[in-house]
Amino acid sequence: MLEIIDVTHTYGAYQALGGVKLTLAEGELVCVVGPSGCGKSTLLRCVAGLVQPTGGRILLDGVPVSQTPDNLAVVFQDYSRSLFPWMSAAANVALPLRRKGMDRASRRTAAMEALEQVGLAGAAGKYPWEMSGGMQQRVSIARALAYRPSLLLMDEPFGSVDAQTREDLEDLVLRVCAHHGMTIMLVTHDIDESVYLGDRVVVLSRSPGTVAGDLQVSLPSPRDQIATREHETFVRLRAEVGRLIRGNQLSPQET
Amino acid sequence: MLEIIDVTHTYGAYQALGGVKLTLAEGELVCVVGPSGCGKSTLLRCVAGLVQPTGGRILLDGVPVSQTPDNLAVVFQDYSRSLFPWMSAAANVALPLRRKGMDRASRRTAAMEALEQVGLAGAAGKYPWEMSGGMQQRVSIARALAYRPSLLLMDEPFGSVDAQTREDLEDLVLRVCAHHGMTIMLVTHDIDESVYLGDRVVVLSRSPGTVAGDLQVSLPSPRDQIATREHETFVRLRAEVGRLIRGNQLSPQET
Amino acid sequence: MRTRSTRVLRGAVGVAGLLVAAELALRAGHVTLLPLVSTVLLRAAELTVDGEFLSAAASTLASWAAGLALTVAVGIPIGLLLGAMPKVEAVVRPLIEFLRPIPSVALIPLAILVFTEQLHLRAAIVIYAACWPVLINTIYGLKDVDPVAKETLRSFGFGPLAVLVRVSLPSAAPFIATGIRLAASVAIVLAVSVELVAGGTDGVGVYIIKAGGGGRTDLMIAATVLTGLFGLLVNVAFVAVERKVFRWRHAR
Amino acid sequence: SGSDTGSTSTNANGPEKTTLKVGILPIPDAAPIQIAIDKGFFKEEGLSIDLSIEEGAAKALPKVAGGTLDVTLANYVSAFSIQQAGLGKFKIIADSFQAAPDTFVIMVAKDSPIKTPADLAGKKIAVNTLNNIGTLAVTQTLKVSGVTVNPSQFVPMPLPDMAAALKNGTVDAAWMAEPFISINQKQGAQKLVDSMAGPTADFPVAGWGVSEDFYNKNPKTVAAFQRAVAKAQQLASTDRKVVEAALPKYSKIDAATAAVITLGKYPTTLNEGRLQRVADLMTELGYLKGHFDVKPLIAAPSTAG
Amino acid sequence: MYELWFSGPVTHVFLTDDALDTFPPSLGRLLVGWVAASLAGIVLGLAIGRSRVLSDFLDPVIDFGRAVPPPMLVPIFFALFRIGTPTQIATIVFGVIWPVLINAVDGAATVDRQHLETAKVFGLSRPQVIGRIIVPSAMPKIVAGLRLSLSLALIMMVISELVGSTSGIGYRLMTAQQNFLITDVWGCIVLLGVLGYLLNSSFLLVENRILGWHSRARQNA
Ligand SMILES: Nc1ncnc2c1ncn2[C@@H]1O[C@H](COP(=O)(O)OP(=O)(O)OP(=O)(O)O)[C@@H](O)[C@H]1O
Ligand SMILES: Nc1ncnc2c1ncn2[C@@H]1O[C@H](COP(=O)(O)OP(=O)(O)OP(=O)(O)O)[C@@H](O)[C@H]1O
Ligand SMILES: [Mg+2]
Ligand SMILES: [Mg+2]
């Protein structure tokens, strides 16, 4: 569904991406991990059509991405700046739904439902600046989920929530993904999380980022917070990813 | 050194803190964990004198905190907004050092040193908006560390960096803390991290936040990323903290 | 990216388009009483080498520069003060709002009685009119500063003054600059208007009075056009400086 | 006040103040001062003159009172009004300009239905200033034609704008002075009636004013100024060419226009009786409250030569 | 001044006939001119602020127009429209549009990039981006411009009434000046101050409604 072919990006003279090659199949959830500043956000922004790659091509369903593709949602890393301070949480979530031609009432219902899913049923009327960091982040997740995109890009979406909420949100994303057949590209710093969530884990190398490893996660679905994490494959993959990030070296399997 | 006595805070009609009681000894590193939106950031802001508690008292070295105390540094949860976009990373780090009466050259040296410690030696001349999320977060950590405060408040300081960098930063904080005898209050969502770093872990209950648990971490110093995390006490405490957050119930030990 | 030359070219096309449209409208005979655009432009070109006009322009320039400099020197500190202290602002707001809508034109006859020095009179009137954009934009600019940025510096133990100077001022600076840019044009307008109303030994406004006395509408409009052109140049200069200084703002 | 700034002569017989700031209007009324400068009459008296272009007597006289100007050209109607309003005490030290036939005219558009002054009843008439010489002359002129003008018929606007106002029908008639009469005539506007005829014939228009304070402190300067101006008045009243040559130097009336415009008279003496006539008409039409004696304002040259 | 305006009968809320004749037409023109200028300024400003091409083409024209003294344009408007209400409104519009326009350009040009990217990603339509992102973002600045221009409108109202008018506050001010009625001149000035104060106070009420989120978001601590 999504083909990223030798994509490079340079900011002025600084090369952030050094030729990334990556393919996502329809309905796949791919986790992207890599050291800080290696170009993960840049890659996501390229896919979202927010910046033009300086080299390479990105194809979505075979068509080159030149503008922002249709039916896309993004959870930005800088979530607090991506919420609109003049709108309540519910309004922030409901806004993109206008694009779907939904009427006022159903927009409202969908927004409330999404907020409830992220545990913010009571905060629908709050403004972003009346919310804690974790709450803001959850609003921006709710906004993306309520939109039901076919391609969902998430940049460190659970960085500001507590462990319990994080697990709940992880499972929520897995559920929604499976149920609506979304394709998801999720950037995370948590190795456990990447293995737990992903159908595949892609490791980017130090800047300029290239694909240093691409691991298939063959864990049984549906995943379970306790059982999956105790699974032998999980433990092995986790170590593998860790080694890839640390050493930037390829695992024996792939050489 | 720091006494938080029955502190409450209400935003308008909404009660965020419901009477927090907490004492920090000189040189202690206390980690605060708790569910999203429970009032951790609010508590930190009260201690920093940025908001006035609506009830209770905060004493620093026996003196009530009415304004921002001297010799304090804060790493804000919303790090990207706390960096000044019109200044380079080095200038951002160097700015607070003016308060210390340092001259230009030594401010510069100190800033460069701190940036190097957080792995940003090469990015000193970059502006915040030219940096990735994790890099911005590290700049704000460098700024706080370079300041050498006697009380350091950190709100989710490692949320946006990769696992490897995170460990490095954790150890950096431990080293600096030990070396300069800082008192640190650190909010985190990572239970492992709270146990790894803290001399004590304080668990706040769901909003309005109160202290639901206060665990002494009797792990040997200096901590070590591998050995400590394998330590039996570590495993026990981690489970304990997890249980406290999840259930908000007190552990058998404390009842 | 677009280059400076395309910008200049497009700007020139915009101005030329306006002028051509005006010329055609005039030639079509809808407004026979105004001199043709081409006539005015010719006169304007002549004025740029006319010694009398140039000395008039120099005099106007002096009162403009003096007025604007004082406006900035007075307006920004007061704006900072009021913006930083909402309580003080609430107290003096009625006074400001009372003074603001009083036309300087109405004050000129009274100012004539107070100022005997021509430059003082002109600068005073310029300041009176031009300080409001600086003041209001400074106050609004300060209100727009990110509280997290302010708290950051406060948490490091900086006092209100340091926060004002190191965070609020730089962060509001772009908006204040816009206010100054507005004020610069207001100052031009007023520097000429005060001459028009109060007369004097020289100045563009005085030149226009003379042209009016002789029924030379073409010269009046030509002088006006040159005034506008000066405003254009001033603005280009301001924008260029703003672009350089506030690069962080557009890149963000 | 600041009237004694500027260079002061040490010569006991010379003028107290040698550099004078003089307010003028860029209209034919002020021609003699330019002549006096050009011919060196001021220099002969030890005076040097700084000309300041004024927008009107109403602004110039307060400047004289305040000391920004030493002397100004002022129309008598303004001068008397200001004096009575108590905004300053003035002395008229020389006469300058007096109406002649066709120097102040009520004009109408080319194809205007208005053919006689009587047609102006209830019509809108443009004047450059309200409650001044224009309204005074128009009111008096129409009174002769049996029309009583209501003050609200007057529409104030600058002289250069009147052509447009006539053309697009904003006003029905306009009271104009030279050079606008000539200019508008060229564009097709018509003279309806001379406003300075009959009761207003030879109407005194403008003279030179100083503040009483200045007058008292600088008698020799005033006398020197009077002598210089008198010589110029003499020339102006006898030789039109001199005036034509002077006009383009202080105004934007070009030589071609200067050659064709109708000029008023440049009186050589300051006559109390003539000025009293202005005051009396002002009183009659309600511009002044009660009788106004011009005598205290008059400061004619001590020796008539 | 008191006698001039406020000694009228109780039934007219103490305003004299004179005042009743003078105020409504003046204020009517002021409001029409201000609203027209504000709308034009906001629309044009947003367009220019968001479109480089448009800003390239129009910036010089605008900067030129800004520096032209409005009194000098009265004769031109006058030749174009006819003296009276149209010319006066044109003068007011021309005089007060600049602060709104410039601030709107500034506000629209500096919308937080992250906001725009969010809107883009969710595929908001052009009108939605303008109406729901750009306008609210630029609103604090636009409002500062509106506030500046409101008092300017009062000033331009006076200026527009100085030429070719036979009624209005500006006309009263001018006749008072030309008749050397100094107390009346002061009366007019005080009246303008009071009117300006009242207009501004009403404006602040509206501003509080529109920008409530902004001041509360910016207060925080
Ligand atoms: N400015 C404000 N106005 C109103 N309510 C606020 C404001 N700031 C915070 N709150 C509320 O206070 C509560 C505590 O917020 P706080 O930011 O302290 O939470 P937190 O523990 O830091 O959460 P997180 O882990 O998500 O950052 C939240 O429910 C939030 O909605
Ligand atoms: N606007 C910009 N201008 C210049 N350089 C930039 C800009 N944005 C990012 N960079 C640089 O590009 C590199 C990659 O940035 P990016 O934000 O993609 O990293 P990241 O992988 O998302 O890191 P993190 O995990 O810390 O968020 C960084 O080194 C950063 O300094
Ligand atoms: Mg990133
Ligand atoms: Mg928080």
UniProtKB/TrEMBL annotation, chains A, B:
The keyword ATP-binding applies. Pfam families: ABC_tran (PF00005). Residues 2-231 form the ABC transporter domain. InterPro entries: AAA+_ATPase, ABC_transporter-like_ATP-bd, ABC_transporter-like_CS, ABC_transporter_ATP-bind, P-loop_NTPase. One of its GO terms (molecular function) is ATP binding. Keywords: ATP-binding, Nucleotide-binding, Transport. It comes from the Bacteria. The keyword rRNA processing does not apply. Coiled coil: none annotated. This is ABC transporter ATP-binding protein. It comes from Microbispora oryzae.
Automatic annotation (TrEMBL), chain C:
It comes from the Bacteria. This is ABC transporter permease. CDD domains: TM_PBP2 (cd06261). The keyword Transmembrane helix applies. It is found in: Cell membrane. It is a multi-pass membrane protein. The chain crosses the membrane at residues 61-83, 95-115, 121-140, 175-198, 219-241. GO terms for cellular component: plasma membrane. Its main location: membrane. Pfam families: BPD_transp_1 (PF00528). InterPro entries: MetI-like (IPR000515), MetI-like_sf (IPR035906). Residues 57-238 form the ABC transmembrane type-1 domain. GO terms for biological process: transmembrane transport. It comes from Microbispora oryzae. Keywords: Cell membrane, Membrane, Transmembrane, Transmembrane helix, Transport. Belongs to the binding-protein-dependent transport system permease family.
From TrEMBL, chain E:
Keywords: Cell membrane, Membrane, Transmembrane, Transmembrane helix, Transport. Belongs to the binding-protein-dependent transport system permease family. InterPro entries: MetI-like, MetI-like_sf. It is a multi-pass membrane protein. PROSITE patterns: ABC_TM1. Its main location: membrane. It is found in: Cell membrane. One of its GO terms (cellular component) is plasma membrane. CDD domains: TM_PBP2. This is ABC transporter permease. GO terms for biological process: transmembrane transport. Pfam families: BPD_transp_1. Residues 23-207 form the ABC transmembrane type-1 domain. The keyword Transferase does not apply.
